[in-house]
Structure formats: structure tokens, C-alpha cells
Amino acid sequence: MTGTMQEKKAGRPRDAGKDALIADAMLRMLAKHGYEGASFEKVAAKAKVSRASIYRRWRSKEDLVIHAIGEMLRAEARDGADITGTGIPAIRQMLTRTAERLSDPFKRRVIAAVLSEAASRPALAALGARLEQERRTPLLIALTQARADGSLPSGQTDEYLADALAGALYFRALVAQTPLTDAVIDGLIASVLQPSG
What we know:
By secondary structure, the chain is mainly α. The chain has two domains: 13-80, Homeodomain-like (Arc Repressor Mutant, subunit A, Orthogonal Bundle), CATH 1.10.10; 82-197, Tetracycline Repressor, domain 2 (Orthogonal Bundle), CATH 1.10.357.10. It is 78% helix and 0% strand.
């Protein structure tokens, strides 16, 4: 009897394929309807699963959103080209990767939907802080390398430069909604990291 109870408590193994379908459906609902409109009912209908299937996996919409965003970014890291080189060449590659993400209309709508709710939802704010730290760490390393080889101007901290670089891309994509071209990235690097005079 004890064994039966343990087996029942353990439940059936999670179906990774169904997890992926649900996560993808949540991303699509975020992009189409925004955070408030991305209900479990809509996600379940899109993924062709029951609401119970979702609730067995995630306690809340926030939990599912955090999982789905993580899966999107892991796929992006897995499929993207590795960052090569050091210093400013590496910084250019990182900014290009960020620009490619923000230039994708689908990903841009997903990111905007989550960021719009982060201020009032601690779990989403924590996700944003963690993702921001993951983004900043390699950028800060590259900035330190660039400073060591004399490529950076004096007078500004690496933290300030990282914010100026990434913040400009997010502003252009999410607020001004202007294209993030190679020329924009080159101009940003020139104005922030290599100012004249």
C-alpha cells in the first residue's frame, strides 16, 4: 500500500513535448494579447491541452511566463553563434545579438508584454533582474578587456557604459520603434565607447 501511495504521489513523468507546446502557446498569447490577455484558457486552447494539464505543471501564470521566457532565451543562446574575440569586437557581437532579438517582431512583443507588468509583479521583476544580470556580466567582462587595452574613454564606469549601450537599443526598439541596423550599432559604439576629443 505504501508503494502504491508513493507511486501515486510521484505521478506520471512530465511530458517534455507537452511542456514545450504549452510554453510556446504562452509566448504566442503574450505576443498577441499582452500579459493580461494571455489567460490559461487561451493558452490551453492554443496548445490543445486541458487547463488541468497547465495547472499540474505551473501554479500560476507568472510561473509559466517565467518558464516560457527562459525557454525562448535558451533556444536563442543554443542556436546563435558564439561570441568570439575580446574587447570592442566582442561588444559589437553582443549588441548585434541583442538587436537581432529586439528586431524580431514576435520577440519584441513578448518582451514588451512582460516588461509592462514587471513593476507590479515581483516574480516578473525578479526574472527581469536575473536576465539583466546574465546580459550584463559578459558585456562588463568585454568592457573590462577593452579598458585594459586602452580602447575606452576615461571618466565613465563600465556599469554606466553597459547601461548606455543596451539601454539605447531597448529604447529604440520598444519606445521609438526604429530599426536597429548595423549602422546604428556602429554609431552607438562610436559615440559611447570611442567619442572624439
